[in-house]
Design goal:
- By secondary structure, the protein is of the alpha+beta class.
- It has a single domain (about 5-125), classed as Aminopeptidase (3-Layer(aba) Sandwich), CATH 3.40.630.30.
- A hairpin with a 2-residue loop joins β2 (about 45-50) and β3 (about 50-60).
- The chain has 5 helices and 5 strands; from the N terminus they run βαααβββαβα.
- The chain has a 5-stranded mixed sheet with strand order 1-2-3-4-5.
- The protein has helices spanning about 15-20, 25-30, 30-40, 85-95, 110-115, and strands spanning about 5-10, 45-50, 50-60, 65-75, 100.
- Bound molecules: coenzyme A.
- Coenzyme A binds near residues 22, 82, 83, 84 and 117.
């Protein structure tokens, strides 16, 4: 079986089918928004199998104090082959000098297992009186 190629790249023609494959309709309903989101990201890393785009992670960062991981997605046909792990590790290595790494994700056991395997901890695990996260959706 082919080994995935993990590399930084931003000019992507095949975004839509990948985002469609994981059912992220908020993006796929507005392809221009998706293109702008990827083009405006600080760092975009992809995974390819035999040249085909099968995974992507992107981060927004000031390269100093904060690294926000916005999307990590792996095509269902390529999941559980450590591609998601390799993508997030590429982001973590790129921003090794940045202390605060944050993200928002769905409250599902698989997501928790995935991000915990990568060294992220849920805010709730810090216990009362420590950290609080806020979000506003407009
Ligand atoms: C979450 C996602 C990116 C994981 O990608 P992946 O390439 O399948 O994950 P990996 O193979 O690198 O898994 C790394 C570790 O995460 C954990 N993990 C990943 N998927 C898991 C699942 N479905 N259930 C339980 N643990 C899981 C495991 O600990 C795994 O290590 P292991 O396979 O040695 O047990 C992928 O399932 C996906 O794209 N899902 C749809 C989009 C999404 O929800 N993205 C995350 C929210 S932003």
């Amino acid at each position: 079986m082919d080994e995935p190629v993990i590399a930084e790249e931003k000019s992507l023609d095949e975004l839509l089918p990948l985002y469609q494959a994981v059912g992220w309709t908020a993006y796929t309903a507005d392809p221009d928004l998706l293109r702008a989101a990827v083009a405006g990201s600080s760092y975009v890393v992809t995974a390819r199998l035999a040249g085909r785009l099968v995974g992507l992670a992107r981060a927004i960062s000031d390269d100093a104090t904060i690294c926000y991981l916005q999307d990590v997605l792996v095509h269902p046909e390529a999941q559980r082959r450590n591609i998601g792990r390799a993508l997030v590790n590429a982001v973590i290595e790129r921003y090794a000098a940045v202390r605060q790494k944050v993200l928002l994700t769905d409250d599902e056991p698989a997501q928790r297992a995935f991000y915990e395997a990568l060294g992220y901890a849920e805010i709730r695990d810090f216990g009362p009186g420590t950290l609080r996260a806020f979000v506003r959706f407009d």
